[in-house]
Each structure stands twice: as structure tokens, then as C-alpha cells.
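Right handed beta helix region
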Amino acid sequence: MDVPRHTGRRLAETEDQLITRMLGHPTFPAPLRGLWYSPALPGPPVPQPSRFRDATNTGLARLGITETDLAEYTGPGGYDRGGPYLIEDQVIGVDIRLYNSVQMTIRRCKILAHIDVDSVDAALTLEDSHVDAGPWSNAAIGFQNLTILRCNVQGGITAVNGSYNVVVQDSYLHGQVISAAGSDHAGGFLCSGGGNIELRGSTIWCSVQDNGHGGGPSNNLNLFGDLGPLRNIRVKGCYFPATAGGYSVSLGHNPGKPYGDNPAGIVFVDNVLGRDLQTGRGGAYGTVTSFLASEPSNLYAGNVWADNGQPVPVNT
């Protein structure tokens, strides 16, 4: 799909070509950096929520599979040698942990536990599966070298916590669980430092409510420079429903954090954001925050409201 310039004139190149060229040339015209594109006339079509990812079109449900179609998994929880491993068509009731250089693919499974890739050399591909981590003080899936395709992911205090080399595509991240009296802060996707992350075509929702004891939702998307710099994180074509959290999306520029001064390569394009129709905001305080528009490699473009297809302003 061609992308209009801020003048409304059509470009000959595709959006992906534009992004690649812009990121490679810091002197590319400033009006195209850190701003959404003005839509060409007539206005954009209103996004249809039925096309977004949810529990009916991800995971096992997408394939018409239920737990009764699956075998019971009787293998180990921890893998620290050998492989590559393939687990298919099973109900898994133990936490899966990958160590050392183990490579694993899990396909068409129901996982009633959490998954951790604990080594920088281990890797997981998860396809067409449903993860329900239930009450758990960390992520349903973490932490690096993750490829998550067409999955339904819920439970834990965040659906996915990713650091390096993460792809989440055509998936539904939701249904976090916090303690009734604790101070846990939940989210849909969290990166506390890292990069080479791609979120595409997914619904990312922090769906919990405040518990009245200091715990509750943070944001749908949390990019925080707590543990390391944020580099090369691309979010495209995702849906972010309205949340009870502070904001729908936080894009990494938090100077008070150890690595929050200079997020770079943060590309947030062609996403759809829901909002509370009474407040007009995607979260309690605003919709999209902490985007560093002055960094030439960052791009915010083509993001629209779910209710009317109009552009969502940044840092509001």
C-alpha cells in the first residue's frame, strides 16, 4: 500500500521501502520524522474491529482444535542439551525452560504454564498455540530469541517480555493476572532493554483493572529503558484496545530511567488504537507517550483511531 506524504501526494515506493530509506538517511526531510502522515483525500476507512486478532482467530481456535483433540504431554520441563526439539498437538502442564543452545518448536499445543528462554543462545518458535500461564509473577512467555506466530497468549503479569530477537505476529496478547492485594503492574508486551524486535498484525491489550492496593495495568505496550538501551523495535499493523492503564503505548523515551534518554530505531506505523469515548484517550492519562521525535531513526506514522480512522497524535 502506498503511503501519502504530509502534502497528501502519493509516493511511488511502498511504505516498507520508505521506512528502510528513511532509517538509512538521517537527513531525510524532518516533516516525515516523529509525525503521522496526513491522510490523502478522502479520509481513511474506519478500521473494522472484526479484522483484529482475538481468541477466535488465533491459537487452537483458529484451526478449530480443542483440548480433546490433543495428547497429554509427558516430557520434561527443562531442556539444556540436544535437539532441535519439536512438540506438536499436546496439552502441556509444566513450565517449559530452554537453556544453553537448545532450539525448540512448539506447534498446535495448549500450554497451561509459562515458557522461558533463559539463554542467549536458546531459541523458541511457537505456532498456532494457546498459552495460559495463569497467576504468575513474570511473563507468560520470555525472554529472547522468540518467534510467536498466530498464538493466543494470556496469564502472568505480562503476556510477552522480550529483550532481543523477538517476533510476535498475528497473535493475541491479553488476559494478564495480578494478585488481589499486591502491587504488580501488568502489561501486554514489555521490553526493558534490548532490540531487534518486531510486533506485527497482533492485538496487544493490558486487560486487567486496578486492584485497589497499588496493583493494576501499566500500558498495552511498554518500552522502558530500565535494563539496557532500546534499539530497533518495529511495531506495525497492530491493534491496541483502550486500557485502564496510564497510556495505551509507551515508546521508550523516559530520561529518568537508566537507559531512557535515547531510544533509537523505534518505528510505530499503521497501528489502530482504541479509546474511551468519554475521555477520548486510550489510557487514563493519554494514548501514546514517550516517543522521541528528535531521533532521526525513530518513526511514528499512519496510526489511527479505531472508531473513526483519523490520525492519533503522538505524545498526548
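thats it. The chain has a mean pLDDT of 88. DSSP finds two helices and 30 strands in the chain. bye
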